[in-house]
Design brief:
It is built from 3 helices and 20 strands. It is of the alpha/beta class. The chain has a single domain, classed as UDP N-Acetylglucosamine Acyltransferase, domain 1. Strands 3-6-9-14-17-19-20 form a 7-stranded mixed beta sheet. A hairpin with an 8-residue loop joins strand 11 and strand 12. The chain binds coenzyme A (COA).
Length: 205
């Protein structure tokens, strides 16, 4: 039995605004059917080339070969400021949709599913196997077209291992996301959130 008290506590621990509420922040692609690709032929060829290049030239490289990996990422359109770190076992779906700032870190097995834009600011960390998912579908249309929403990870934020971040979410500066958390809302700066669904654990300032 869930008491009124525990229900009240749960509500009071809700954090941030729901990201999917702000529909204007989402891009919907034109797709005649669920089986039609939202991408142009050129984009599909580039994605294929990117997969090949990462496997052949980067995925096997030792951890310190970061600058070498950044060369290839830059060639494929990633926007790089200063020297971010991209682990060799990280996965980047579409590099030209990814922006990383100085000392930002995409860790071991982290997945930047960048169908839409992802921006990771200075000193922010995306830990092992965390998943930044910028894509969903408009399920109320028969063709279920692709929808994307930008994910922003603020300066010095930390996303714990195996956390899942939904499309359109902004993680505020200095915020901490607990391991294995599901993040559907914007996370306020300098707060810790965790759990599935995530809830506010503490304010850090
Ligand atoms: C989120 C985190 C930073 C919180 O640390 P903390 O501020 O010291 O918090 P506490 O350990 O005191 O836990 C506070 C509460 O949150 C809960 N909690 C902590 N982490 C949680 C998580 N990841 N998921 C769900 N609940 C979590 C605790 O169970 C506790 O709940 P309770 O008060 O009901 O007992 C930490 O637990 C975490 O997940 N760190 C990331 C680990 C990681 O990703 N490592 C890999 C990279 S090195």
């Amino acid at each position: 039995m869930q008491s009124n008290l525990s229900r009240t506590l749960k509500v009071s621990r809700v954090y941030g605004e729901r990201a999917l509420n702000r529909k204007e922040d989402f891009k919907t692609y034109n797709q005649s059917s669920a089986y039609a690709s939202p991408w142009s032929l050129r984009q599909r060829v580039l994605m294929l080339a990117w997969g090949f290049v990462w496997t052949v030239f980067c995925a096997w490289t030792p951890k310190p070969f970061n600058r070498w990996r950044l060369i290839w990422l830059r060639l494929f359109g990633m926007k790089i400021y200063g020297t971010p770190f991209v682990h060799q076992a990280a996965r980047i779906q579409i590099p030209w949709n990814l922006t990383m700032h100085d000392r930002a870190c995409l860790g071991d097995g982290a997945f930047a599913y960048s169908l839409g834009e992802i921006e990771i600011f200075e000193d922010a960390t995306v830990a092992q196997q965390a998943y930044l998912c910028t894509g969903t579908h408009k399920f109320n249309e028969p063709s279920r077209p692709l929808q994307t929403g930008k994910i922003t990870v603020g300066r010095s934020a930390f996303i714990g291992a195996r956390a899942f971040v939904m499309p359109g979410v902004t993680i505020g500066e200095g915020a901490i996301v607990g391991a294995c958390s599901l993040i559907t809302r914007h996370v306020d700066p300098h707060t810790t959130v965790a759990g599935n669904p995530a809830h506010l654990i503490r304010k850090l300032v």
